[in-house]
Fold each of these.
Amino acid sequence: MKKIYMIIFSVLISGQLFAGGILTNTNQSAQFVRMLSRNASVGLDAAYFNPAGLIKMDDGFYLALHNQTIIQDKTVTTTFPFLNNKEYVGDVFAPLFPSFFAVYKKDKFAVSLSFGPNAGGGSAEYKTGLPSFEMPVSMLPASLNAAGITTNKYSADIYFDGSSVFWGTQLNGSYEINDMISVAAGVRMINAKNTYKGHIKDIMINPDMRSHPLGALMPQYTGNMVLASQFGADFATAIQTATGQRPNFGDTLAAATADMEVDATQTGLAFTPILSANLSFLDDKLNVAIKYEFNTKLELTNSSESGKDANGMFKNDSTFRNDIPAILAIGIGYSIADNLRASVSWNHYFDKNADWNGKEKFIDNNLYEIALGLEYDINEMFTVSAGYMHGQTGVGQGYQTDISFSNSSNTVGFGGRCNINEHFSIDIGALFVSYTTAEENKTYLNTINYTETYDKSLMDFAIGLNYKF
């Protein structure tokens, strides 16, 4: 059973919540949710998306507080022949996904601060575990039958709950070189934290010893469901009585099926340098933005409670790399009319260059996203918007697992803004993501071939409050 927790913790479950690369979250504002293309933003959320574009704002001090509520289901189906279940569903719920922006703009200079969950940002609860958790347990009947112990059923109480958030605090300085060109430099501090709670307990089997050579020493086992660990201990005693040998197969079975529990945390601190430039043409009707975020070298340290480290699989104070990949983001914004604006965004994530403790070797191509957004002012008070985004994953065979998988996606978003007065405005938005089902052929113990399919569904609802002093 130790292999179960090696699978659980070999891959970071956090993953991103919707927009971004395999790990990164770029859905950092309510304007993004309602438009999906913000790389060329010259509004308040440019503090994250386009720091150099903040120069286009009017002089003043600005504050914004946004929040998203994200609901996601992750579904894994499997053809593994020995499992009781063929479908496993994980519920991901992030009721609070906040972001904060502050900007001070004066003449040719701007200083900005942004804060939000730049990776992770939610929790995943698997009430019945996952195929990889249950497979070693499901093999018990076959293993016991091979040892001459008639067994055809198993059960177990398997539960896993993981939460993850990588908080990013970003500080930028922006400068206008001339009417056409502005630049910015900044740094983001990443505070990463993952927590895991789970157990595998009450593993039960139905051994029938009536036809076994040691059956006379174990008359209580007649095909009823019993604790596998207790049966293993009794079988070990029976072998000792008959042969004098100890330890033996029964002791191995008892140890392998004992209850296991995990209560662990992973934490880390890292920094991301960020450079950006903004180019304006045609009297500011055309805006081109370029931003590069350097690879974030992130090392996470394990911390686990005594006796709750999966028998040493989650060793206290051990470390591993979990980089946030570099990003090249390009945006083009164009004012079609005074009340109609269009935007195109493209993100390229350098996943192949990140250090993920070897898992990056299964990346065939870097993930990319392309998005189109439209925004229309109905009048001075109300604005409506909509957008579309396609994300293309680049993972290859060997990457996908039931605990961590990456799907290509198509997203639609819509919403609007209400300008309450010249100082205060409210953004609202919603988006829906359709994922392409992924599939991977696998082999268990080099003998059992099976197929797993991976799917997701996601909804995101956002509200943003913006104020200019």
Amino acid sequence: MNIGIDARFFGPKAGGGGLGRYVEQLVRGLEAADAEHQYVIFLKPEAQAECQFTNPRFKKRLAPIPWYTIKEHLFLAPLIDREKLDLVHFPHWNVPIGIKTPFIVTIHDLILLEEPMSSRASTRHPISYAIRHFLFRIILGRAIERSVKIIAVSQYTKDAIRRFFPKTPAEKICVIHEGVTPMPSAPASETLATTPYLLHVGNAYPHKNLDFLVRAFAKFHTIHPEFTLVLAGRDDFFLNRLKSETKNPHVRFVFDPTDADLANLYQHASLLVFPSRTEGFGLPALEAMAFGLPVICSNGGSLPEIVGQAALFFDPANESELISQIETAIQHPQIRERLIGDGRRQAAKYSWKKMVQETQQLYVWRKKT
């Protein structure tokens, strides 16, 4: 088979965290594992140097086309179609509407439908945002309808697809979980904070519920003044807006953390707090567990499915419940030790190698059909 992958999101820096890591691990894993099929990897210019292949079956094609733009729909489809591929994998919903090549699409979440018109969800004028949201619904709907298969990263996401697009056959959607990326160990002497701290890792989009976390922490800090809160995420409008609105000097921001920075933060934190109202997967919770960091987790979206019984849960609208769960984890050593052990075992259930194998099987399924 000749298989294409739209890898313009390649790498967590270019792709914005979890999506970029997903694309990177997919491409690197396939290169290491597949000695049978031919691959064409479509990359943005900034990823050309970072994405190097030793497998002669893998070839790069330059695709200097920004995502979520008109150019994507005018120029990406002809660029892919001219390769005469048997199949192309789009790792996100933004499939160009004119594509003729058969394709598989990965849907990570349907947050833009679950929280469609949040007044804080965009930097754009509400009318402009409403138009873009309407176009998103059309593009997403066409991708779901025209795809030969859909990969959902959780059962929650699969159920959401069926809820918003009820004509989609259940058998068309395959649940393939993401994995946990091994990170470098930080020297014990190196720490990014000098006091005990609660940690959040991830972007600051409205559904992440970080304004709620900051308010709850302010109340928690009056009882436990020795703690600080560290928010680590992408340097963008949303995190900068949160920083400008946060007057609490005990809240610290870490912008664009590297994997080494994240390893450092995970290793020295007291707890990871994950307050999202909804998630398609929730990778930082598993990364924290892999480091032996206890997790306090919202019961929203896919999170109960992904972390199982290895976290303490709270209602993402209930500040008192969150504070109570934090106090439980820091004041009861036996519960903390149980969370650490259960968390390591839970994180070990997820691997990028397994994700690559299951995705590759889906490609082969297409060949057989």
Amino acid sequence: MPTRTRKGRKYRGSRTHGYGKVGQHRDQGAKPNRKCGRHKHKWSYVIRYDPDYFQKKGFTSWKSLKQHTKTISIRELDEITKDQTAEQTIDLDSMGYTKLLGTGKLSKPLTVKIAASSKSAIEKIKAAGGQIQTEEEETETAEAAAEEQEEK
């Protein structure tokens, strides 16, 4: 857009640019709930009476949620273990993964230890002849063992 056709060029030299006398349109009085000076000379007011004034609201980005959950698929797990021939236990928790997803196929039986996994991942590991140990199952077995000891 050319500069000469902008509205601001029309008002050069007029001091108030059509907003009347003495600083009208300078503060944010027309905008609801956004008052001027809250980050400057009215900061003590914000601290005392309105501490949530600058609080973030709205939706959480899926990108930030994805950062907290580090996932691995069955395809990647199969690629990691393709060199091993014997059945082995893989601790994905110690490798930094938090969830196992069911994309891909598993070619050998594995015992996998991880915090969480999808239903399809559990089915594929059991279909290949392996086992999966999640935190939920460990807590359930620990609770069942504690109940058996109490009964004795």
Amino acid sequence: MTDPRHPCTGFTGLMKRSLAEFFGTFCLVFAGTGAIVINDVSGGAVTHVGVALTFGLVVMVMIYVLSEVSGAHFNPAVTFGFWIAQRLPSTEIPRYLFSQCLGALSASLLLSLIFPGHPALGATFPQGTVLSSFILEFVMTLLLMFVILSVSTGSKEKGITAGIAIGGTVALEALFGGPISGASMNPARSLGPAVISARIDFLWIYLTAPFLGSLVSVGLCRFVQAEGCCGRLEKKSCR
């Protein structure tokens, strides 16, 4: 059973949504972690601000391009959040998560071919304590998911302001959280470079904290926003 709110239904719709999530996540990881790699090999030409803006801009652009196809999640924690909020059918979860992880792994594999000498390919590592990075990832994902739920209808980000709000949130969090936790907020974004570079020692942080942050965010949205903002019978946004 497919979500009737999607413009594409049936097998063709499933393939289009899967491809959109694959391509969107691929672009996010290729541009975002690519900016980190290029900053390293160029001696800091991109800068930390440039890396943060790259992540925010690529998310914003991909939302405008692909939101009407798949909802522009590009993030397993976001897909999980929409499911918890009863805005996405359970049958969609495996396809979304597989497409997102495959897109991230493909982007990191391509970066490893372009920059074969780079040791981490933009992987996320805690620069402070493990606890500080875990808390940062939890809180930043909570904030990101709250913004997404508030500017979306059903499981799709819609409207001219959605891309700006979500992309701006990603850039903001990367600006202040990046130097400590890497500001992933996205299990797929961390999975790709960690697996391809074989640097998985701290990967568990980025596979757990974002999901927990997304889970709590749905409860917060239901408490703060209008009644019924998250529920199977509601088709309006959380605003």
